[in-house]
Write a structure and sequence with these properties.
The chain is an alpha/beta fold. The chain folds into 2 domains: 4-121 and 263-323, D-Maltodextrin-Binding Protein, domain 2, CATH 3.40.190; 123-261, 3-Layer(aba) Sandwich (D-Maltodextrin-Binding Protein, domain 2). Helix content is 35%, strand content 20%. The protein has helices at residues 4-20, 44-56, 59-62, 74-82, 93-101, 154-165, 181-189, 205-210, 224-233, 273-285, 287-291, 315-323, and strands spanning 32-36, 65-69, 88-92, 114-130, 145-147, 175-177, 195-200, 217-219, 237-242, 256-268. Strands 1, 2, 3, 4, 5, 6, 7, 8, 9 and 10 form a 10-stranded mixed β-sheet that branches. The longest helix has 17 residues, at 4-20. The protein is globular and about 55 Å long. The structure holds glutamic acid. Glutamic acid (GLU) binds at residues 38-39, 42-44, 73-74, 92, 123, 154-155, 199-201. The site of glutamic acid has 14 residues, from helix 6 and strand 7.
């Protein structure tokens, strides 16, 4: 008869063997950590995929995996992460600021439990337009068919603020469309709209798709007075330029002046500390590889990853950054 010890050793060995030889199909039953991102042709989706890729390097050790999922962007992400439907999300700095201060879109509904995980890349306020619509500068949007994104989405909210600052009344001065932004590039090529708004990192697949077709497409520049005024209005906005080098078929060449805003990976305060620690550690331990996952990540600087993240760092993220000597 086998001793208890032998049986324990044998069953432990069998259990380990099972864990280390799990077929890919077992993904469906493994615990899953989720990140809500953006439209599939934006950069949030790639960013979520890159974070998941780093986490999944240790999938067997962690006994669970991470998956990214598409969404309508920042505002939806804040809602679903806070509601507990997903674990992590990506958001523009402004929406985290509004939520944590209970202003603008979150007027009277202050969210005190948003926590930052990693600061990511800078996104740019972008207007993509057909050349034949003759929108040479943002103010020329007047009278045009303009897509501003799904009602209640971050794109719609951002467009409303920008249009107001441009002195354009969305009710009377434009023909407005609310197609989801991931469809806007095909609508532009189909001549269903003249231009669309997108606050997004560059390069992205939306602009690439918009430039693939018979209709010639360009990115509309903002005038410097507008840029300086908007950038000065909030601490998290800055003057920036869009790098067009990856867009072969775009009509503009060179840098296009606009306003930039940081994107941030976030979670809720109640999120398990160990999981957040693992996410941060996996990205930071594989930092060079992470930066290679998308050209927009090339701008990331290791020591700046916990900086300018609007809301307090989650305890799991702070633990990693302290251990690594990046914060005190
Ligand atoms: N900035 C957009 C938003 O907050 C998303 C951009 C992207 O998906 O890359 O909705």
């Amino acid at each position: 008869m086998k001793s208890v010890l032998t049986r324990v050793v044998c069953s432990t060995f069998l259990a380990l063997l099972l864990i280390y030889t799990l077929p890919a199909t077992s993904m469906a039953t493994e615990p899953m950590t989720t990140i809500t991102t953006g439209g599939i042709n934006g950069v949030y989706y790639s960013a979520g995929g890159a974070v998941a890729k780093m986490f999944n390097k240790k999938r067997q050790e962690f006994g669970g995996w991470m998956a990214n999922q598409a969404s309508h962007g920042s505002l939806e992400n804040i809602d679903t992460v806070l509601a507990g439907g997903v674990d992590f999300g990506i958001s523009q700095a402004n929406f985290l600021y509004f939520a944590s201060n209970g202003i603008e879109n979150f007027d009277g509904q202050q969210k005190t439990n948003l926590r930052a995980v990693l600061g990511l890349y800078v996104e740019d306020l972008t207007i993509i337009a057909a050349m034949d619509a003759e929108i040479n500068i943002a103010k020329d949007l007047k009278g045009k068919r303009v897509n501003i994104g799904v009602v209640g989405s971050s794109d719609e909210e951002t467009s409303a603020v920008v249009l107001e600052r441009l002195g354009i009344d969305p009710e009377t001065d434009l023909e407005l469309f609310n197609y989801p932004t991931y469809e806007a590039s095909e609508k532009l090529q189909a001549d269903a709209i003249d231009a669309y708004f997108y606050t997004v990192g560059h390069p992205n697949l939306s602009v690439m798709e918009a430039t693939e077709g018979d209709r010639k497409v360009h990115i509309v520049p903002f005038d410097q007075t507008f840029i300086d005024g908007l950038a000065a209005s909030r601490p998290y906005l800055s003057a920036d330029t869009i790098d067009t080098q990856y867009y072969d078929k775009l009509e503009n060449k060179g840098a296009i002046p606009t306003v930039g805003i940081k994107s941030i990976l976030f979670t809720r305060a109640e999120m398990d500390e160990e999981t957040v620690y693992r996410v941060v550690k996996q990205v930071m331990d594989n930092f060079e590889l992470f930066r290679m996952q998308h050209p927009a990540f090339a701008q990331l600087i290791r020591m700046e990853m916990p900086q300018d993240v609007i809301v307090p760092l989650h305890s799991g993220a702070a633990r990693y950054f302290r251990e690594a000597g990046i914060i005190q």
